[in-house]
Amino acid sequence: MRYIFLLILIGGSIGVFTKFVRPMYLNVQELKKEVTDTGGSLSTAGRIKKERDDLIAKYQSISKANLDSLLTLLPDSVNNIRLIIQINALANKNNLSTLRGVDYQTSDNKNKTTQSGEPEKAYGEFIVSFQTTGQYSNFLTFLSDLESNLRLVDITNVEFTSANPSSSTSLANVMNYKITLKTYWLKQ
Question: With a threshold of 0.85, does the pTM exceed it?
Answer without folding.
Answer: no
